[in-house]
Amino acid sequence: MLRNLPKSIFDIILSKDVRIILRQSLNPSLRIVILMILATGIAYPLLLVLIGDVTLPFQSNGSMLTLDGNTVGSKLIAQEFKSEKLFHIRPPSNSTSTVDPHITPENAYSQIPRISKATDLPESTLKTAIQFNIEKNKVSNVLVFAPTYVNVLEVNIELITGYPDVYHEFANRNLNGVN
């Protein structure tokens, strides 16, 4: 009678009946897991990328802004500007991340005297550029949820394109005025 008992737990686990039961229950489960990985991990993200590229190409490609046909940066990521003729981003110590491309209107207005002195543009012109950018941002945010902010890259590009004689060193170059 003792001879018919299994010798160890491994004999029970590896018995033919147990292997058949495991195969019957695990095969469908593994198939479902693999199918879900393919569907939710590969097919769905690719579908969203395709829909984004077709319906919102500017946003899905990084909201890149151009100047004279050259890409100069993203509307969504801050860039540090060294020139006294351009608006500067807020110092990293005043920003929770160093990639925030926006400054407050007060910060922008405080830079007007420096830029006016460097460019000989009237302060009223620079103030108008800031106000135009604020209004444009409000409209793009459906007026309701629009915090007041100034996008530094957009304002700088508007100044460079609007006043090519003043900003001639930035033509066909990056926004720091160097090749």
The amount of beta strand, in percent, is: 5-15%
Structural class by SSE content: mainly alpha
Task: Please provide the ordered H/E string of secondary-structure elements.
Answer: HHHEEEHHEH
Envelope shape: elongated
Quickly count the helices.
Answer: 6
Could you tell me the mean pLDDT? 81
The tally of beta strands, per DSSP, is 4
Uncertain residue segments: none
Distance between the termini: 91 Å
| Largest pleated sheet | 2 strands, antiparallel
What percentage of residues falls in helices of 4 or more residues? 40-55%
Strand line-up of the largest beta sheet: 1-2
Number of domains: 2
Radius of gyration: 30 Å
How would you describe what is shown here?
The chain has helices at 9-13, 16-55, 57-60, 105-119, 123-140, 152-162, and strands at 64-67, 70-74, 102-103, 150-151. With 179 residues, the protein is mainly alpha-helical. The protein folds into two domains: 7-55; 62-170, no CATH class. A hairpin with a 2-residue loop joins strand 1 and strand 2. The longest helix is centred in the N-terminal third of the chain and has 40 residues, at 16-55. The mean pLDDT is 81.
